[in-house]
Amino acid sequence: MLELDKRSIMYLPGVGPKKAEILQREAEIASFEDLLYYFPYKYIDRSRFYTVAEITDNMPHIQLKGRILSYDTLGEGRTRRLVARFSDGTGVIELVWFKGIAFVKEKYHVGKEYIVFGKPVEFGHTFNIPHPDIDPIEQAAQVANGLTPFYNTSERMKKAFLNSRAIQNLQFTLLNMIEWDVIETLSPDVLDQIKMTSLSEAMRNIHFPESMEKLKAARLRLKFDELFFIQLHILQTATFRKQKLKGLVCTTVGERFNTFYKDYLPFDLTDAQKRVMREIRVDMGSGRQMNRLLQGDVGSGKTLVALLSMLLALDNNYQACMMAPTEILANQHYVTVMNFLGDMDIKIALLTGSTKKKDRNKILPAIASGEIDIVIGTHALIEETVVFSTLGLAIIDEQHRFGVEQRARLWQKNEQVPHVLVMTATPIPRTLAMTLYGDLDVSVIDQLPPGRKPILTLHRYDNRKAELYDFLRKEIRLGRQVYVVYPLIEESEKLDYKALEEGFKVFTEVFSEYKVCMVHGRMKPAEKDVEMQKFISGEANILLATTVIEVGVNVPNASVMVIESAERFGLSQLHQLRGRVGRGSEQSYCVLVSSFKLSNDTRKRLEIMVQTSNGFEIAEADLRLRGHGDLEGTRQSGVGIDLKIADLGSDGQILQYARDLANDILSSDNDLSSPEHQILAARLKTLFAHKIGWGLIS
Length: 698
Ligand code: ADP
Ligand code: MG
Fold this sequence. Notes:
Helix content is 41%, strand content 17%. The chain is built from 25 helices and 22 strands. Helix 11 (271-285) packs parallel to helix 12 and helix 21 packs antiparallel against helix 22. The longest helix has 33 residues, at 212-244. It is globular, with a radius of gyration of 30 Å. Bound molecules: adenosine-5'-diphosphate (ADP) and magnesium ion (MG). Residues 267, 269-270, 273, 296, 298-304, 425, 449, 554, 583 line the site of adenosine-5'-diphosphate.
């Protein structure tokens, strides 16, 4: 049988080298198999005909039956277009073409009856349909037979005559060529268990649905396939790592840990912190390499857990390091750790991009000789010049900001892989965690230190600024500090900076008796630090900022977080920002300021923020509302989950089911070596051949 994944798309009749190149570049379709797995993104019911009189704005693609009354060629140059007046007796609509004018006029005749299919757009007081599909009425039975698939196509694809219809034609050619028979990817035992439709049937119905029911069954089967193989891959990698990768053994809980715990720790650990510490201690002492993701909402006390883990490494004669995504954050960790450790005899170094050369020249040899116990820093830590004597534990904070490769470079610093603890304050929904980090063990700090008052969140429209200012003034008089955050979106960066700068003007005027400072990403790090320091020290009452303050900053006296244009932020981002307040014992507030005109989704997002402060609930809602493709971090995560059909927001159950089944299979046949499972092993190899080794470094 034809090996679909090895056959270049170029050789499919109707493609050829030029189209093949475009398919590859624009849609990542390189092989026959890629085409088959290029699924429609939607289906339109073509069994229904509309009338011209029924057309309103915001309609999806519709289908009309009628006659062309006349043609006109209008405009010049780039606006030159062919306009056909088209009527079905209930009204007249214009069909418009900007390309292929001669061809259209030649092919479709005035007075003859046609089926027209396209999306009406409002133009002045009438509607027109640009570049409609047109078929003679005699072909109604063929074209208007129910569910028509729509494939994503780019402008370049369309220019090369690779529109959605053309893709469907290619699918037809391919499926016909292989006699509508696609090699099964699942083994008989799995097929037996899941009781889903066969792969052939699923492929046929995903591209040429016979009915809504069959389409649903096809989608279910293909979603299952997608998630099942990802889970098999992840779980197998995890097993492999657990078996093969020896870990540095840290069983001693020694002097440093105990001294700190008894004499320096200013408060009791929360139960959640204690539980997580036990998990980490077991890992680090097990003889296997720890690969643990530590999730905890902002303010849940991850830094302390990190510090205790580092002391554990130190007690076993290893060094430890901690890497943060920004200088501000690295600095803050450094100060925090120094404060915690007080006069304990532990050597700590800070290493960032702005560490002076003179200092670097002292620090680097001291790291290499083992004289320095703990290094805290930014990306500077992964530069080649940084050599450890014996790195036992690498902690990575806010890991979304680091790519997989960067992290890998950190733990390749040793001959023996160090233990790795990845900390994130962005709560990752379970479904996503299972897919992204399915091979990491997960610890969760699901409890805040005692004495915190929940933050009160309010939503206010931006036409009521005076009230807001009154409220802020009241808080400042009580001695508190205020954050005001402006969005910064790359595409409109200029406008965003303008908004921030205008805001600064307004605030310095309205609050002329107080001190206002400002930080943003365009400042030099040193400048940023100076401004930031004004706020940290309490000298400034109000800090205006773009999202640079999102991670890490800890100013317990700040009790109000104002978020301007809150509608432009994602939920998780709003949650992170809100976490900057509520760190002291005072009542804190988060004020979401938005314009009055909001879409339904946006209104829902802001409502969720007002209603809950649970990071996990928010992350789940974010996933539901935006889909996983948008979820902060998934794209940069580097794990590259490029799901073609499953949706982590809505397919959590299928994912769980797929994972359980994958687990079952591996527990009896961990390398898929039984004859029955050859088919699964082969499929895994096709799917993940280019990703070998990922598991080791994620
Ligand atoms: P995270 O990094 O998880 O956002 P931090 O580690 O910055 O949170 O902790 C937030 C604040 O809570 C810090 O000021 C820290 O000293 C304090 N803290 C941490 N653990 C406890 C605890 N068990 N009891 C009281 N305060 C704590
Ligand atoms: Mg933190």
